[in-house]
Amino acid sequence: MISIFDDMTQVTEAEVQHMLPLVDEQRRNEALRYKHLFGQFACLKSWLMLKELLAPLDINDMEMDFNEHGKPFLAQHPEVHFNLSHCKNGIAVVVDSSPVGIDIESFRRSNLSLIEKTMSPAESEQIFTSSDPVEAFTQYWTMKEAVLKLRGTGIVNDLHHVLDGKGYLLETHVNREKRYAYSIAYHTIK
Question: What are φ and ψ of residue 74, in 5° steps?
Fold first, then answer.
């Protein structure tokens, strides 16, 4: 199950104040640690989106625990997997019965140094020959992050070969109008 939010006109102080009483104390405190309005909003909104996706599964206890790399999981429901992501143009949440990763990113220019540091030669060629290199880079970046989040390892030193592995399926979506892309990485074995 996937939930995408991209109506960024709702990122207001009034909406943050509206959402604060809808979350538990831990999440409220976490949201208020952000200095900027968007961070507070994204923290609260992603939590409420997750809560909504878990409701059909009758999961109300959303106490979190974390793996050794910081990936959160539901302490009382380890059989349910989720992942959250946000960028300035959207928020993405996914829930699945197997480990899953999601990443959403706003379109952004990248410099040659970043592409060389993070992309394989084949990926770099695809980016440079694309009709929209910014969009192509963003798609590759979301795919790599989604796979890393699926694995629960966080960013690794060698990003060139992240997409060389097996054991996952990737789904990538682009919203050109709102200028973002997101990718979901699922385990192939369910």
Answer: -75, 115
Q: Kindly give, in sequence order, each residue whose CB lies less than 8 Å from that of residue 21, ignoring residues fewer than 6 positions away.
A: none
Looking at the domain covering 103-187, what would its CATH class be? alpha beta
In tens digits, the chain (190 residues) has pLDDT values of: 999 999 999 999 999 999 999 999 989 999 999 999 999 999 999 999 999 999 999 998 888 888 888 888 898 998 999 999 999 999 999 999 999 999 999 998 888 889 999 999 999 999 999 999 999 999 999 999 999 999 887 776 678 888 987 889 999 999 999 999 999 999 876 5
Kindly tell me the burial class for residue 140, based on how many C-beta atoms sit within 10 Å of its own C-beta (0-12, 13-18, 19 or more).
buried
| Domain 2-79 top-level CATH class | alpha beta
